[in-house]
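Just curious. Protein, please.
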Amino acid sequence: TGAQMLSYTGNAGTASQSGNTITWNIGNLDATVAYAYYYIDVQVEYPAATFPNGTIVNNQYTLNADICQQQVTHNSNQTCIQVTEVVANQSAFFRKYIYLTNRVPGCDGYYRVAFYNNGNTPLSAFNIDDVVPAGITVNSVMVSGGTAGNMLDLYADGNLILSNVIGNTTHNFTSPPSTLQLQMNGTLPINSWVNMYIYFTVDNNPTGTQIENCASFNGLSNALTLNDACVTMVVNEGEPIPCLVKDICSPAESYEPGDIVRFRLRVQNIGSADLIGASLQDVLHSNFTYIGNESYYVANHYNPPCSSGTLPSGASPWNGVTTNHSGNNLSWNLPLVESDCQLFYVASCGYYGAWALPYHYIEFDAMVDTFAMPGVTINNYEISGGNLSSTVTSNNVNVLVVASFGQEVEKLVSVDGGVNYASSATAAPGSTARYRLNYRNTSNVPVSEIKMADLL
């Protein structure tokens, strides 16, 4: 008694309080809705005068309903709350992350310095200091998380470059800084973030050079001490990194013998060196017969429409691709595929690829073989050779071949002792006719226990 419902949220019904009972009226529930799920979240206040420290509050709810014209009741589990005095606890999440796929001289990346108030009390003004290490050149900085109550200032080499930031703001440098200081002015509420993003280019360091960057927290008047947030990277040697994706143009749920499947191969170079002298190999399963009708093009989208006699809108020819096919063993020799690691920070070799880089495509047709076995046929392709250090394999594509049933029967006759057979013949009275029964399984599944009957 004495607790008060302040508010509620849910996906059905209404809630009200009478005395110390909260009633949730859901209404009629439709039994035809599969996996129906209804909930309500209720915010309740326990006044300190009625619930002093140490009070134990137990609570449960009871479901009352009519089901099939019968009254039913069900009690929930019981929750337990102990009223205690809240002790202020200053705490924070403080980390630094690096975003850089190619840790190679000349490539661009960025650091994220992340600060999150995960304590139970707001934080007053504090500073975050970052000393730029040797081996990188800072190009710009973005700060975010400022509000009217906790505006942000940014200093570079002791000079104020961003003031009273609300939301997020970026500063581009004409002269690279050696020190950065982010000042949070005001009060940072509980569960609030402040971030600093430091965009940089890797200098011309020898391979194997270790570059460590640390950010430090100065709590000023806050009673909070945090370890430095550090991250280390090792400078690598430039190399191509092929990103391969295989898919099917306008894929069907299943295919029958004789259907045409148009495969598409996609290549990107997300590395830090040009891809030179490499080749693709695609060994088609015996369930397919290579047809051809190839096309080669470059596009700026991860999934443009497939070519149908003409290149997709906005695409350009991919010149220099040559073939070296032998039956179902397909091979393409690729021209140079350039790299440009300054167009992206982190490259993803998934379905979407690296959107800032060009996408290179090869398409071709294959026919589902007449005697392709039913089931799922898996296919992929590889890239190797040239200046690649190892073979890279694409994703798998699955082609479901369904059973196709059919049969042919034929009866032939011979009047010359079986030397020649035909569908008809002329025989003299008293001569001998020799018959042949032919059966052909035209389906792509085996047939057993064949029985043939001839009623002469």
